[in-house]
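Take one protein record:
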Amino acid sequence: MAEKKSFFEWMQNLDRRWIYLIVALAIIIPLLIPYNSDNVTTPPTENVYQMIDSFAGREDRAVLLSFYHDSSVMPELYPMEIAIMRHCFERNIKVFCLSFLPTGAPIIDMAINTVKEDYPNIKSGVDYCNFGYIPAALILPTVIGMGDNIATAVPTDAEGRKTENLPIMKGITNYNEMNLVVEFSGSTAGAYWLVYARPKFGTNIAVGVTAVMAADEYPYLQTGQFIGLLCGLKGAAEYEKLVDVFAAYRAPGEPLEPYFDEEGNKIVPGRSFSKDILNQPEIKDLIKITPQTEAKFSPEEFELFLQTCPEKDQQLLHQVKQSVDGKIVIDIEKLDKNQFSSLT
């Protein structure tokens, strides 16, 4: 009589092709069957968002983005960088960029050019400043020097222009104004800023890291040395949704660009972060992660949505809309974004 094999012995003798088949099905089936996955935002991501959003519309505040990585970790870090840049340009926040790795400089250019497709009116030296690649030998002089004077520590930008003469520098001198550094890295992130910038100048630091590195960064988050953390694709997805719900929000009839009220106060479109808004059922549905390509509205919701769009875009949306079971349905795959005067 044959000896009965244990489960582990049976698994060891299992043809590996069955394993590959199971893995393939686990990947293919979710892609073929539409599903919705809740995207609950976490406090570390929310803290980064709220800190950046507190700078909205202020000439004396700016964010520094440090691209400390190469292309090997772009699938996880690049969406974070795009989301934060979108947030800044939606809310009229000044952005400075640099990289201490030569491989990071082209990623900065790529990110800026990608975001410019949605925000064609942003200008180099006015809305953002790209310092480009700064050699590793100059990390300490740069990190410490920015605490005294940014224009002295980094005298020129990536285009060779004098930093002190750039319009973006109006109201910006050192870390007192550029009071948040966000470093993106596939390894230990924020080390130089944490050791030199925070103790000496009180600089706020946040990091965006690959998921596998998040465990190394949490101790600094728990001690308050980091004000926030974006963790892998999950963190990027959370931040994207926060931007969609708050920074990119436009009330019906509200201008798309910053404007001044009757008293001369600068008004930046969008709305402030609120847990109450995130807990609303319709918002929870909005921020779900889904592969579905159809947007569904009630007739009333569709009319309110149209009010946020320019007239040309309204006509295009009317052309592609369909009525299904009393709902207005728009298949976004049928939309050509190049035809729209603005992305909503």
Remarks:
- The chain has a mean pLDDT of 89.
- The chain has two domains: 43-247, 294-344.
- Residues 294-344 form one domain.
